[in-house]
Amino acid sequence: MLGHLFHVKQQDRVGWIGLGEMGYNMADNLQRYLASQSLTMTVWNRTPGNALKMQHHGAHIARSIEDLVAQSNIIFTSLADDAAVEEVYEILFDLAGQVEHSIIFVETSTIYPTLATKLKERLAVTPQHTYLQCPVFGRPSLAKAAKLVWVTSGDEKAIKKLCLYFTTMSKTIIHLKTTDVSRASAFKLVGNFFVVGTMELLAEGLTLAEKADVDQESVLKFIEAFFPVPSWTEYSKKMTQAPSSKDGVCTVDIGLKDVKHMRQLAQETGASLPTADVAYNHLLTVKEQGKGDHDWSSIVNSLKTPAPSRRQSEENYTAVCASEDSETNSKSMTDIYPPAYDSK
Ligand SMILES: NC(=O)c1ccc[n+]([C@@H]2O[C@H](COP(=O)([O-])OP(=O)(O)OC[C@H]3O[C@@H](n4cnc5c(N)ncnc54)[C@H](OP(=O)(O)O)[C@@H]3O)[C@@H](O)[C@H]2O)c1
Q1: Per-residue confidence at 242, pLDDT binned at 50, 70, 90?
Q2: Does ligand 1 come within 6 angstroms of the Cβ of 247?
Q3: Number of the ligand 1 atom closest to the C-alpha atom of 137
Q4: What is the rounded distance in angstroms from the CA atom of residue 210 to the CA atom of residue 118?
Q5: Can you tell me whether residue 121 is helix, strand or coil?
Q6: pLDDT of 277-323, one tens digit each?
Q7: SS3 assignment, position 222
Q8: Is the residue at 341 inside a domain?
Q9: Which of 175, 186, 195, 199 is most buried, most CB within 10 Å of its CB?
Q10: In terms of domains, do 245 and 278 share one?
C-alpha cells in the first residue's frame, strides 16, 4: 500500500503527530521555518481542529497515520501521556516495518524512562529507523515564542542532522550525548520536579499571605524584586488571578502524570521526594474538585478548600506537633503523606 513512495528521493520530509497545547505551537514554528525553505510539513492529530489551523499556515494534513508515515522520513510526536504514546507508536512501528525508506522518530512527550527504552528497542527490529527521545521544557506560551529548552538523547548523527530544526523551536538545547534514551526522560522528570516544587512553595506562601491578610500586590512585587525568575513571577501571578481561559495551559491531569512519574522514579532509585508527595496530594485535590483540565498552577486552590485526604494529613501533622515528647514525634514525612509512589 505504501509502495508508491518507496522510491521517493531521500530528502527531509517532516511529519508531526500530536497538535495539542505544546505540539501545535512547536509544529507551527517548525512549519514557518520549513516554509521559508520552500518545504512543508505533514501533520496528523486525533481530532482535526488544530490540524486545520496548521493547514492555514501551509502544512499538509495527512488522511491517517499511515498516510503521514508514507510521506515522512522525520516524524515528531507530542502526545499527552504514556498510554497515548504507546498507542500511537504501536501503529507507527507496524507501518515502519512496511516501508523501505528510513525514518527518524523524535518523541518529545514527557514519558516514564523505561517506556522510552522500550520504544527504542521495539524499533530496533527495523534497523533503518532511528528513535530519539527529546523532551522539552517550557509552557505553551514559550513553545509559541520558540523559547523552549530541548533535551536530546539518542543517535548522535541523527541529532546533529536535526539540530537546526530543534533550534527553530527553542532557545537552548541540552545535549545529553547518550544513546540511552531513558536518560532524557529521567532528566525531564528531575527538571519538572523543580517546577512543581516551585509551584508548591508559591501556593503555600501565597495562601499564608492571604490568610494573614498580607497585601497580595505587595507580595507579588516582592517576588518580582527578590526572585526575578520567569517561573516564580509567572506562576505567582497565575495563582493570584482568576483563570482566563483553558488555552495555553499545562493541565492538572498532565501535571499529575508528571508527578506520579517522578515519585515512581524516586522510589525505584531510593531517592526521597517529600515535596512531590505533598504536591501530588494537592493536585489530586484540585482534580477531585473537577478541575483536571485547569492549569496546574490551580494547585493553590487545594490549600483553600482542604479535601478529606489533605485534612487527614493536617490532622496527623497537628498530632505530630502537639505531642513533642510522644512517640508520634518520630513520625516521618511518609507517615504523614502517602508513600512515595502508589498506583493511583
Ligand atoms: N503543557 C505544558 O506546559 C507542557 C510543557 C512541557 C512538556 N509537556 C508535555 O508535552 C506533551 C503534550 O502536552 P500538551 O500540554 O500539549 O497536552 P495536550 O494539549 O493535552 O495535547 C495532547 C495531544 O495528545 C493527543 N492525544 C492524546 N491521546 C491520544 C491518543 N490516544 N491517540 C492519539 N493522540 C492522542 C491529543 O490529541 P487531541 O487533540 O485529539 O486530544 C493532543 O494532540 C505531554 O507529554 C506533556 O507532559 C507539556
Answers
A1: confident
A2: no
A3: 6
A4: 47
A5: helix
A6: 999 999 999 999 999 999 999 999 999 765 455 444 444 433 333 44
A7: helix
A8: no
A9: 199
A10: yes
Domain total of the chain: 2
Number of H helices, E strands in the chain: 15, 9
87 touches ligand 1 (CB under 6 Å): yes
- Residues 224 and 238 placed together within one structural domain of the fold: yes
Q: Report the SS3 class of residue 329.
A: helix
Cβ within 8 Å of residue 53, ≥6 positions away: 19, 24
Print the domain residue range for 61: 3-180
Predicted pLDDT of residue 80: 97
Q: How many other CB atoms are there within 10 angstroms of residue 34's CB atom?
A: 19
CA of 336 to the centre of ligand 1 (A): 33
- For residue 150, pLDDT over 60 is answered with yes
Torsion sign, CA atoms 167, 172, 177, 180: negative
Which set of grid coordinates corresponds to residue 102?
Answer: 528510513
C-beta of 295 in contact with ligand 1 (< 6 A): no
Of 153, 180, 207, which residue is a domain's last? 180
Q: Residue 31, SS3?
A: helix
Helix, coil or strand: residue 60: strand
315, burial (CB in 10 Å: exposed 0-12, middle 13-18, buried 19+): exposed
Please state the atom number of ligand 1 nearest to the C-alpha of residue 18.
Answer: 43
pTM, two decimals, is 0.88
Q: Whose CA is nearest to atom 30 of ligand 1?
A: 84
- Positions annotated as catalytic residues are 188
Q: Looking at 130, 150, 180, which one is the last position of a domain?
A: 180
State whether the beta carbon of 255 lies less than 6 angstroms from ligand 1: no
- Atom from ligand 1 closest to the CA of residue 81: 45
Please compute, for residue 234, the number of CA atoms within 13 A of its CA located in the half-sphere on the CB side. 15
